[in-house]
Automatic annotation (TrEMBL), chain A:
One of its GO terms (cellular component) is 90S preribosome. SUPFAM superfamilies: EPT/RTPC-like. InterPro entries: RNA3'-term_phos_cycl_insert, RNA3'_phos_cyclase_dom, RNA3'_phos_cyclase_dom_sf, RNA3'_term_phos_cyc, RNA3'_term_phos_cyc_type_2, RNA3'_term_phos_cycl-like_CS, RNA3'P_cycl/enolpyr_Trfase_a/b, RPTC_insert. One of its GO terms (biological process) is endonucleolytic cleavage in ITS1 to separate SSU-rRNA from 5.8S rRNA and LSU-rRNA from tricistronic rRNA transcript (SSU-rRNA, 5.8S rRNA, LSU-rRNA). Belongs to the RNA 3'-terminal cyclase family. Type 2 subfamily. NCBIfam families: 18S_RNA_Rcl1p. This is RNA 3'-terminal phosphate cyclase domain-containing protein. The keyword Nucleus applies. It comes from Pachysolen tannophilus NRRL Y-2460. Its main location: nucleus. Gene3D superfamilies: RNA 3'-terminal phosphate cyclase domain (3.65.10.20), RNA 3'-terminal phosphate cyclase, insert domain (3.30.360.20). Residues 11-337 form the RNA 3'-terminal phosphate cyclase domain.
Amino acid sequence: MSKSESKIKTFRGPRNFRLRLVLATLSGKAIKIEKIRSNDLNPGLKDYEVSFLRLLESVTNGSVIEISYTGTTVIYKPGLIIGGNLIHQCPDSKPVGYFLESMLYLAPFSKKKFSIIFKGITSSKIDASIESIRWGIIPIMEKFGVREVSIHTLKRGSPPLGGGEVHLICNTLLSSPLTLHALEVPKISSVRGVAYCTRVSPSIVNRMIDEVRKVLKPIGCEVNITADVWRGENSGKSPGFGLTLAAESKKNNWRFISEDIGSNGELPEDVANSCCLKLLKEISESGCCGRNQLVFAMVYMCIGKEDIGRLKVHKAQIDDDLIWKLRDIKEVLGAEFYFKDSDDQDQNQLIATVKGIGFTNSSKKIA
Amino acid sequence: LQNSHNVKRKWDLNELLYLNNIDPNDVIKRWRQEEDELSNDEALSEEAEEEAEDFFQKKEPSDKTDEDLDHFQPMYKLDELKSKWEGENRQDAFNEIKSRFFVAPKIKKGGDDDG
């Protein structure tokens, strides 16, 4: 007993909480996370992290989760991913994107199809909005062979009170993802986007659209922003507005995403402006994926067949946060990335290569 | 003596990446220093040291426990972005990403208003 106990992979601190649990679930290995905010005024897990653990428990069969008395230590022994029909009430402290994003790592490798309705806030300043998952993450999944996955926005809910509803459906069940070979930096042909608002005047949406056109004019490519005004029952409990932009490539369906929402005292112009600047930054410092898509793509590369996957990344994308994540991936899955110089004109590009761990969907083995 | 100070080890990213005893901040720092050396090897040590100092000062607040270390959106500093894309050198900035688009960026003020 004590022998197996000592073998448990141990992590420290609240960093990459979801990623660590997701990797553990995929690999079927138990993990322990200790010292979670142990020096904080409010030590231990936050309500949304507990909510995330509950969600994991309900999409798997046989998971054991032990949380210490103070909440600073979690031991997680994953069960099989089973999926199914669920409703998950998200706490008001995190938007549905926080939960939804992580579920996309697990959904294609489940026993049954995923159909989860998430209720709560639909956007925030730092977590994924519905559009950025729909345009940013789902196209990446398609490259790995996950073609039938969709997200439906039933109701929007702005912070702080939320009241939104989002339905995730994943009909593709894979045994392992395809090997990725993304060696060509995509050329962007147009910028698309959605400017939305809930319970405020529709003119706010138009102000955002005008500002985006103004800021992005120098790049001279097509800018097409959809106005999405939500009224009545389906617009949640709080007034709010936000913007998601996606720079689309002509070939192969790569997209670079940026997003922002209006917080207290922010003008629609400010939101649009920061969103555009972030998009420009993302484009100027990216290989095939933006920063917010990179880890997702890398995890899928690791759990692929035993073949070398390749992905072009920009040197600037390799920052300390990415290194933390790559180390976590190695710790749980055992896959190591190797960065090679790329031979094209742009000196700033590298090729990230990794050999898949030969993962197979454990629920498929039985069937 | 000065020479030995100036000689810096060339770090390969792949060597450092999975050395768990080296903090990811330091990994990036060492790796980037090597890059500076390649581009302009003069006046490097001073610059690098300055940079390192800057680096520590900037990074200090991020070690606070109340920062959310599990986020989706990258954290960019809006001031930096503003000065790059809306400052005096915006033309250079836009030219830099010209190759990423199918159309060539044009930076003319006024002109046609069909946008």
